[in-house]
From TrEMBL:
Tagged with keyword Membrane: yes
Compartment list: Cell membrane
Membrane topology: Multi-pass membrane protein
Name of the gene this protein is made from: yajR
Record's protein name: Inner membrane transport protein YajR
Predominant subcellular localization, coarse grouping: membrane
Database matches in InterPro entries: MFS (IPR011701), MFS_dom (IPR020846), MFS_trans_sf (IPR036259), MFS_Transporters (IPR050171), Sugar_transporter_CS (IPR005829), YajR_YAM (IPR054152)
Pfam families cross-referenced by the UniProt entry: MFS_1, YajR_YAM
Gene Ontology molecular function: any one: transmembrane transporter activity
Domain of life: Bacteria
Domain Major facilitator superfamily (MFS) profile: start-end pairs: 13-393
Organism: Candidatus Erwinia haradaeae
Keyword Ion transport attached: no
GO cellular component: plasma membrane
């Protein structure tokens, strides 16, 4: 068997955790396109409170994301994942049992406390070898993108067929399935492997939150999710005004999402292969600015609204895929896990601001106020995008070192090799992290260099 072929344990870990992630995200995203149309019928509901019901999930996630990641180091990955899913189930049941918007707000807040993303990534790292971790992460990323696409189509269909309360029961059932997958399909890790590429490190937080380029990327994902949430707070009511009944919205989302994915995927591949990520990034922000201007000028025109929605989904899908890659490229060697943790927290804060601010604006000013707010956000983002540095197209690799190799001057030796840009060794962790240009040198070549160095020493 090739050392790079995934073992059964790695396959079960990748597929199992990908399914866990997808089931939970499906439950989260299905609510997004329907809460403003069906939630407004709840007792005590207003546009402001409906927006809070959408955004409060992000507040809970932002508060608990990093602490739960730290707790999983102490109490174990699976216990924290299962506990988080149980909290998500409790929140879903609370929302399912209520007829009041305040009950839905409480339920959504409880759902958000089950912030398991960091624990899932850490368990994946424990169960996969370094050479296969990227493959496993790719599967998780694909499952995330597909889940979002499926959820915004399924949400309106299920809610029309069964009702809002029943949707929350279904969401709770999906989380139960995720627990069963965690218990019976995902392998248990016999040891905890400290991997700075996937885990939050307390001592690294200060460095990450003061890094200028990472700050711009974190603000970018915050802006992106403000636009996402505020758009899905406003667009469903706009679709109703131009003649699409709530139960027909899935047709609009299905068609526009399929076209968006077909356009965004080759553009993403082009940006990565041709190393044009900054240009595509700026173009995306400009596209989303134009989209918000189109939304503002809709004036109940079906074609303007649908064109704007299509362009928005193209830009969103591109950005959602590019930003994690840019964070990975921009983070210093050995800081990627912490950088991704702060990035995810910024994403959740964007959800919270998008829900709360847009709900209030929609209730007090109307849809045009929301789109004007989005334009102001996007203008600031567009200006900031020009100040983003072109990323170095480097990959991070981690190697486990034996004690015999740690004492040799490895860092200086490796830095002299073409394609290697930075090396960081942690003797107490028996780990080495290297930033490389994957077009020049790969893991197998570095392993050969290490072997020859050890033999000579």
């Amino acid at each position: 068997m090739s050392d790079h072929k995934m073992t059964p344990v790695e396959l079960y870990a990748s597929w199992g955790l990908g399914i866990v992630f997808a089931l939970r995200m499906l439950g989260m995203f299905m609510v997004l396109p329907i809460l403003t149309t069906y939630g407004i019928e709840l007792k005590g509901a207003t546009e402001t409170l409906t927006g809070i019901a959408i955004g409060i999930y992000g507040i809970s996630q932002a508060i608990f994301q990093i602490p739960i990641g730290f707790l999983s180091d102490r109490f174990g990955r699976k216990p924290l994942i299962i506990s988080g899913l149980c909290l998500f189930i409790i929140g879903s049941v609370v929302a399912a049992l209520t007829q009041s918007i305040w009950g839905v707000i409480l339920g959504r807040a409880l759902q958000g406390t089950g912030a398991i993303a960091a624990a899932v990534m850490a368990l994946l790292s424990d169960l996969t070898r370094e050479q296969n971790y990227t493959k496993a992460m790719t599967f998780i990323g694909i499952s995330f993108g597909l889940t979002f696409s499926i959820a915004i189509v399924l949400g309106p269909v299920i809610t029309h067929m069964f009702g809002l309360q029943e949707l929350f029961w279904i969401i709770a059932f999906l989380a139960v399935l995720a627990i069963l997958v965690t218990l019976f399909i995902v392998p248990s890790a016999s040891t905890h492997v400290l991997n700075r590429e996937s885990e939050l490190i307390k001592s690294d937080l200060r460095h990450v939150i003061t890094d200028g380029n990472l700050i711009k990327l974190n603000l970018s994902v915050l802006c992106l999710h403000i636009l996402l949430i505020s758009s899905f707070i406003t667009i469903p009511t706009q679709l109703i005004q131009i003649g699409f009944l709530a139960h027909e919205h899935w047709k609009v989302y299905l068609c526009t999402m399929l076209i968006a994915l077909a356009i965004a995927t080759p553009l993403l591949i082009y940006a990565e292969i041709k190393r044009q990520m900054k240009n595509i990034f700026i173009s995306c922000v400009g596209l989303m600015l134009g989209t918000e201007i189109l939304f503002l000028a809709t004036n109940n025109s079906m074609w303007i609204l649908l064109t704007g929605l299509e362009l928005f989904l193209i830009g969103f899908n591109l950005m959602e895929a590019m930003l994690p890659s840019l964070v990975s490229k921009a983070s210093n060697v050995g800081y990627k896990g912490t950088a991704m943790g702060v990035y995810t927290t910024s994403q959740c804060i964007g959800v919270a601001i998008g829900g709360g601010a847009s709900g209030w604006i929609l209730g007090h000013i109307g849809p045009h106020g929301v789109f004007a707010f989005n334009i102001s956000i996007t203008l600031a983002w567009f200006w900031m995008s020009f100040r983003l540095h072109e990323p170095m197209y480097l990959s991070s690799l981690r190697f486990t070192l034996k004690s015999a190799t740690i004492n040799s001057p490895l860092a200086a030796y490796l830095k002299k090799k073409e394609g290697i840009f930075d090396v960081l060794i942690f003797p107490e962790e028996h780990s080495m992290y290297i930033k490389v240009d994957p077009k020049v040198i790969g893991r197998s070549e570095i392993e050969k260099l290490l072997s020859s160095k050890i033999c000579r020493d």
